[in-house]
């Protein structure tokens, strides 16, 4: 039984090293030692269930606790940096390495090796595939971006400008999320009209054309627009 225990632990260790090396070479937060320890630890927990003779139900229960515990480790490597999420792939790799360790602890060496191969292929081959996809023109991407169009005009012409904005959006065609008006600070007799739109980045030239047309109105003193970071369109 001791030899079988050592064999399972060595298999988990080897698989953890294989997965961890790839992460370490990319200098991720969870590298060689962390992933190897996760795989080996998962193996030890499951092997405990085997040694105590709790049967399949006991091993399955221990594996479930291992998954929950690894979830806390995964949360530790996920960070938010300037509005973007970093470390999700490394957290997923930790989760998969724990699964490989569980398989080794249960004595399923073939599935464990297959799982290790899948993780390595995902982090290497699919990494390049995802880069190729991300390098495609933005017009082919399923994205939406929020734009804010701001127009400053005479108070007396507020209704005219609001109507002109609505008509321009209808003829482009574009659709806005909101259209508001407010007084300009320290400038009596001036109104700021703000239109919020959500559209595909490829339609940005339409917004530019609309802003150019509105800027030609006599009552308009300034026209500007800003764009927020693009986000995937909801399913």
Model description:
Keywords: Cell inner membrane, Cell membrane, Membrane, Transmembrane, Transmembrane helix. The chain is an alpha+beta fold. The protein has two domains: about 1-135, no CATH class; about 140-230, Alpha-Beta Plaits (2-Layer Sandwich), CATH 3.30.70. It has helices spanning about 1-25, 30-50, 55-75, 90-105, 110-135, 160-170, 205-215; strands spanning about 80, 85, 145-155, 175-185, 190-200, 220-225, 230. A hairpin with a 6-residue loop joins strand 4 and strand 5 (about 190-200). Helix 3 (about 55-75) runs antiparallel to helix 4 (about 90-105) and helix 4 packs antiparallel against helix 5 (about 110-135). The chain is rod-shaped.
Largest sheet: 5 strands, antiparallel
* Helical/strand content category: alpha+beta
Tertiary shape: rod-shaped
Strand residue content: 15-25%
Order of SSEs: HHHEEHHEHEEHEE
Taking Cα atoms only, what radius of gyration do you get, to the nearest Å? 29 Å
Number of domains: 2
**In total, how many beta strands?**
7
Give the N-to-C terminal Cα separation. 52 Å
Instruction: Determine the fraction of residues in helical runs and give it as a percent range.
Output: 55-70%
Mean pLDDT: 82
List segments where confidence is low: pLDDT < 50 over at least 5 consecutive residues: none
Helical segment tally?
Answer: 7
Domain MgtC-like C-terminal: 147-225
Transmembrane segments: 34-53, 59-79
Domain MgtC/SapB/SrpB/YhiD N-terminal: 9-131
Membrane topology: Multi-pass membrane protein
